[in-house]
Amino acid sequence: MYLEPPEKVSQEQITLDVREIEPLLQAPPMDVPAWPGAMITLKDGRKMYIREAKLSEAPMMMEYMKKVMESDHDFYDVVGARVYAEIVGWYRKRLKDPYVLLGLIDGLWVGFANGRLQNADINISLHTMALARGGRIGAVMYYAKAYYGFEILGNKEWWATYESYNGWHRWGLGMAQPSYPWPEYQHELGGARVYYVTKKYWDTTVKQYVRQMVGADLVFDVPDEIIKANEVMHPPEEVLV
Hints:
Elements: H1 18-25, E1 38-41, E2 47-52, H2 58-69, H3 76-91, E3 98-105, E4 108-117, E5 122-130, H4 137-152, E6 157-160, H5 165-173, E7 195-198, H6 199-214, H7 224-229
Parallel strand pairs: 5-6
Antiparallel strand pairs: 1-2, 2-3, 3-4, 4-5, 6-7
């Protein structure tokens, strides 16, 4: 857009350093406590380590999500595209206060959970995925990120939405999540309904429901050998969603 200046100016062209622009494009980060890393024994006996993803792992994760986009069932094409965008948004610092959690078994990437903070009170759940079958990995990852929000970050509300029937059935219906009036409230994933959990509802009901599904609890005193075995992540060879 061009408008003639209403006054004489001594310099008609101004050159900006992109480092001056970046602070306006990149959201100032909140002081967010890190996920400390946790281990859990799955229902099939395997031990899964849940840690924060490393920024250097983002390109590898994005390549895997390209394959997920090609899955033409249960809305995985939509999920794959959106998760790819969320990962690259995190990688390029175009997502406000994101968190990315990986579920790993001996270095194999088997679980994914991410979200971001709208503010200190509201945690926006984005996606949760199991990349391997068995062990209720998806439930574990959902529990881990909700635990992170309510128990570690001290969030007061958890906002979610669902793209697939299975996700809505397992979490929306399964946790009897109420929803805010639509369209006054819209989730950022496509403007869908916002299903929410309050801290009180988490404490009294939801936490126990998810624990029962998982069948075990998170262990934060993780042995060094488990941490070392999962320091280097590698994706599955096949897409098993």
